[in-house]
Amino acid sequence: MIRVLPLKEKDRLLGMLPLFCHLNWWGRLLCPPIVRLPTLFFSNPTEGSLLAAIALSYKVSLFIGTSTFLAGIAGAVNDEKLNSIRITFTGAEKC
Q1: What are phi and psi of 83, to 5 degrees?
Q2: How many other CB atoms are found less than 10 A from the CB of residue 15?
Q3: Residue 92 — very low, low, confident or very high, per pLDDT cuts 50/70/90?
Q4: Which of 35, 45, 75, 87 could link 69 by a cystine bridge, Cβ 3.0 to 4.6 Å?
Q5: Do residues 85 and 61 make contact, with C-beta atoms less than 8 angstroms apart?
Q6: Cα gap 9→70, rounded to integer Å
């Protein structure tokens, strides 16, 4: 992962709970300690404005989540609050 995804020393991941699928288990729970990626967890992925505020406060640079939850975060705030986000991963949503 380090070769594919160039992580920076200041990177932080915002993980939303609960862990629904393999993407979440790997990306939010197992991978961060392996690559020494500081991770913040929040219990309710439907609170887009609060998640955006957390991202701003902690200068989160990585998001992993379903497209519905990521759209909720993006739709709840203006672009300036998400300036620290460098990379987003989305997937694992049932259609």
Answers
A1: -60, -30
A2: 20
A3: low
A4: 45
A5: yes
A6: 24
Q: Could you give the CA distance from residue 36 to residue 9 in angstroms, rounded to a whole number?
A: 9
Virtual torsion, Cα 64, 67, 69, 75, nearest 10 deg: 120
Tokens 């955006």, located at residue: 52
Residue 29's pLDDT band, with cuts at 50, 70 and 90, is: low
> Exposed, middle or buried by CB within 10 Å (0-12, 13-18, 19+), for 33?
exposed
What are the DSSP E strand ranges found in 1-95?
Answer: 13-16, 39-42, 62-65, 87-90
The sheet that has 13-16: what strands, in order across it? Answer: 39-42, 13-16, 62-65, 87-90
What is the pLDDT averaged over residues 34-62?
85
